[in-house]
Amino acid sequence: MRDLWRAWRRKVRNLMRTAMNDQLQPRQSRHCWMRRLNATAFGALLAILGMSIAPQAIAGEIESVFAKNDPASKVEIDHSDWDKLLKKYLRKASDGLNRVNYEAFRKDGRKTLIGYLDRLQAVDVTGLNGDEQFAFWVNLYNAKTIEIILEHYPVKSIKDIDISPGLFADGPWKKKVVKVNNVKLSLDDIEHTILRALWRDNRVHYAVNCASVGCPNLALGAYKGVTLNSMLDASARAYINSPRGVRLKDGRITASKIYRWFRKDFGNSEKAILEHIGRYAEPTLAEKIKGATDIYDYEYDWGLNDTKG
Q1: Residue-range definition of the domain harbouring residue 10
Q2: Beta-bridge partner residues of 303
Q3: Which of 1, 7, 184, 292 has its CA 20 to 30 A from that of 160?
Q4: Are 278 and 234 in contact (CB under 8 A)?
Q5: Measuring CA to CA, how many Å separate 42 from each of 6, 18, 39, 308?
Q6: Are 213 and 128 contained in the same domain?
Q7: pLDDT per position as a tens digit, 171-214
Q8: Beta pairing, strands 252-256 & 297-299
């Protein structure tokens, strides 16, 4: 609720600032200014109402395009540039968090990243097999997220990059930022309408990275179709066995908010979530949560996964 209120205030401030700066002339009366501000606010309200209806139809169109794949395809997308960038600018910290050297990345690696993103967007993704598609979408999501951070760096949190349309939208996730198979897509489209909806594999939550401390690690290498399952399992194990994923204090379980936000993906109950966690937990953690049926609290850190953090 606090995050929603913060987004509301930021949007209203921006709206009023725009109305005052762009529309208020020196000799305009107070009533004239109010009429213009009201018109601006009314237009924004209409946009919000329209946006609450449109996404369902758009999501259906996106699914219909990207549900296609070629199981017999042997095509492997070249992710070598992304792989090299990750190995160059990603560092594993002492706490197990993979942090990004955004300052160096922005200075020396952004051009290569943009070239990689351009090549991905030229791919006919419907001609790939399912595993290759999954790897494609995860790499596209993660690479574009990094590029957005670099464009706005320095920032303390990705949530401060308030470029999404709509009064209540926060962060960059709802803005159309890539184009694949002639379809404009947002990060939310990739994660929720494509990856989650079409694959229904909850391990996706350990693969896509939102550039935050609380998020599962940005992988130290690019995802590949031929090694997809082993990489997804490794990412799940790494997160679940880190304090950012699950931790115990005084016998009480605190878990990442990812399990609350996407409860349905993990079985729609705390018992099911804990069973999922148990499948990837190391022996010590598995023994501690054995028989547990509820989670005491959920936490998440939106701070940027920066090496300066």
Answers
A1: 2-62
A2: 157
A3: 184
A4: no
A5: 21, 14, 5, 42
A6: yes
A7: 999 999 999 999 999 999 999 999 999 999 999 999 999 999 99
A8: parallel
